[in-house]
What we know:
The protein has 703 residues and is of the alpha+beta class. It has 19 helices and 30 strands. The strands form ten sheets. Strands 8-13-9-10-11-12 form a six-stranded antiparallel β-sheet. A five-stranded antiparallel β-sheet has the order 20-17-22-15-24, with no helix packed on it. It has a four-stranded antiparallel β-sheet with strand order 14-23-16-21, with no helix packed on it. β4 (140-147) and β5 (150-157) form a beta hairpin. α13 packs across α14. The radius of gyration is 32 Å and the shape is elongated. The relative contact order is 0.08.
Amino acid sequence: MSSRKVYSSAGVTGYHLGSNEARISKKHARPSDAIGVQKNQAIIAHLKREGQQFEDPDFPATDEALFFSRKPPKPFVWKRPSEICADPKLFVGGASRFDIVQGISGDVWLLAGIASLCQYEALLYQVIPKDQDLSSNQGAIRFRFWQYGRWEEVIVDDRLPTYNNKLVFMHSAEKNEFWSALLEKAYAKLAGSYEALKGGQTSEAMEDLTGGVVVTFNLQKQPANLFKILLKNQDRQSLMCCSIEAKPNEIEAKMDNGLIKGHAYTVTAVRKVHARTRTGQHDVELIRIRNPWGNEREWTGPWSDRSNEWSLLSEEEKKNLGLSFDHDGEFWMSFDDFTKNFTTVEVCMLSPDSAGEESKKRWEMQINQGSWQKHVSAGGCRNFPDSFFLNPQYRVKLEDPDDDDDVDNCTLVIELTQKGRRKQKRVGSQNLTIGFSGYEVGDDAAEYESDGRLNKDFFLYHKSFFRSENFGNGRSVWGRYSLPPGEYVILPSTFKSEEEGDFLLRMFSEKSAGSSAMDTETQVTYKPKKSTEAENAQFDAKFKSFFDKVAGADDEIDSFELQQVLNAAFKKETGGRDCSLEACRSLVASVDRDRNGKLVYEEFREMWQEVMKWKTIFSDYDKDNSGDMNAVEMRGALSKLGFRLSTPALSSVVLRYANKKGRVSLDDYIQICARVKSAFESYLSYQGKSFSLDDYIMSTIYT
């Protein structure tokens, strides 16, 4: 190993880029990890000043970076490129598909995605920034991947696992070229280990390498307007690939017509031409395809190189097509022959934050981050009618029909992606089974809307207008729909209820479409009722002597004394269980104006009258008289009091106070009411004023 100085985390700290949490606005001006870029540049600058070589503390050269479930099968040795060969380079003669050779990891899906990236220089250099090389970067190489709504920069050191001085995982056919090996390492860092990359879909790699969304068409069940769909995707710089299904013993088998089974091709052009025949001029739909091998293995049927069909086109038409007849693996064929011979076409629709020609048309994109949480928003599929409506709800408004659409409809492509599951393989987590349903928001929707969301009855009495073809356990599920202009609500869900996970919901359309989460807006309209003199007198006659007895000589009640009062008053409701001291402390804090931790009689009276009202509401919403409530019932009870909570706010309450079954007891409920009331009053008291750290700590800790 090298004896040069190495860099560890002692030099520059705080640069780990592991977070997948992205703050995404509706306007997408290429959101990127600007802080990560600055930190990585600072790391490299520090290394150069100190003359050190980078050793990544967040992805160290250890067995744990290779495998999480087993030991390496052989004694691998981590080496830098300069220790493997002479004159190592990041690129040798640019990047091409031939630079990529699969190693021992089962990530051929990633290899295929990287190979397709090589076709487009702008996209490649979006992933591998051009301003770096192996000789001057002090062993630190930067990469960028699209991760759940933004471009995230990842830095790795250039140490790679070897055996007998040969690279173990993905590598280049050129021994001194290292871009593909280091790209795989950076992606493995995102996933947590090389082993975490085992098994996947090419669409997953394509999305993380371009920021796009991949839509797959089965050519045996193709939509009637598929040619028009591909034309529009070509206009918007979508990447397109196609393949022929093959049995295991037919992989890369050459067919009589020159095509190869089980082989990935790239679609490089989609055109409609005018052919002159004896019966007149006819439109012909053509598609140009490239065999990535770049050799003489090409289609030999109609419209192939030098076939008679080309005589039907004018010289100008041929020129417009850029027609050439080289043995370069690229060929034309009729769209009809294409659909008869190929079985699948994949379209990667580039998002507005993907690299590409700025002059070209772009897809409009709406993006929403969300989560499924037990007892709050993990409602499951339509098989669970009592909880389905709890899933996150997203409204989308389609106003302008697509250009040249035959029925003035709007294209809407929806992709639902579960987040971070590959990295959780280390702890045994698997992908959830996910899907989505879409509903038309008609004129009657308002009568089913409650606190900003559609209630259970809406989904019981309305059929879905569209939905994902099925529920799948891949990273993403998607659907492409032609919809009349109007408003729709989309519910992403897991197949089973009470399954937790984070997700990303993206919507692509030809024209701009408004999208927003349907949720309760957190509002507090709570106003303590002012008691009349007669009501106070009646209360005093009943409780004053009791208060004096409990309070003692100081005429004040603290939390410990209040606990005795509540235990006596709520003995029936709590089944004889003691009220918690924490609830009593929260109640004292809710009316303790002088912040001495005790209540004088007037404060006690105010607090007790409020607690009685809270108790009445609790009983009204405890439908089964079980002595507790679920999160839905609690949300309604709080709203009745004037505490309207958004789903994120409700989530925090449930996480803090609910039991394992997601239920809240009367004692918990009283704490919640007291804490929300105090938090709201604290919020109001500081509006328009400076708010110091001391203020924040005091307001959150005491209440």
